[in-house]
Amino acid sequence: GGAFKIVENTGALKAGLGSMAKKLSGKELLLAPLCVIIFGLVSCFAGCWEEFLPFIPLICAVCIAMGFDSITVFGGAAAGYGGAVTNVYTVGVAQGIAELPIFSGMSFRRVVFIILELCTIIYAYLYARKVRKNPEKSSMRQIDLTRNDMLDLSSLGTFTLRQKLVLTVFFGGFVAIAFCVIKFGFYIDEIA
Q1: Which of 63, 124, 125, 144 has a 20 to 30 Å separation from 38 between CA atoms?
Q2: What pLDDT score does 120 carry?
């Protein structure tokens, strides 16, 4: 959680999301599936859940700025966590208790993850489209209207090389963790 907050404080996430949002201008609905996929993959392979807490205000603000509501994309983390492939906190611990080989049954869990992720992507896309078309249909409408952290995408600065490097290292860490868990059998001690 602390590392996530440090990355957030660099402004890289805000600039990266702003850059992605600007590139998707006219195709904003693609942001919902993209966020679901990113959250899902990180939860599925690196076991993130409460680590997303520092990002909630930023993601909510971006979603509202894109014409959605504040809950549009958060199902991705749940799909990844529920269909976890190499999540040491759920799969690893449970298999350790059950005295099963750590991360056995990975092929089945991949299929479960893909199914959960596809269902979540479809739902998030349809929900985003519905809310964008008619904001009154949002289940968060009244709460979102009281928010004071609205984001103006046009006011965001450029996405600098430094910020791109920060995000590359940040997401590269998740890839390294997933690779080491699968290839070298890393568990809680090694990941820590």
Answers
A1: 144
A2: 95
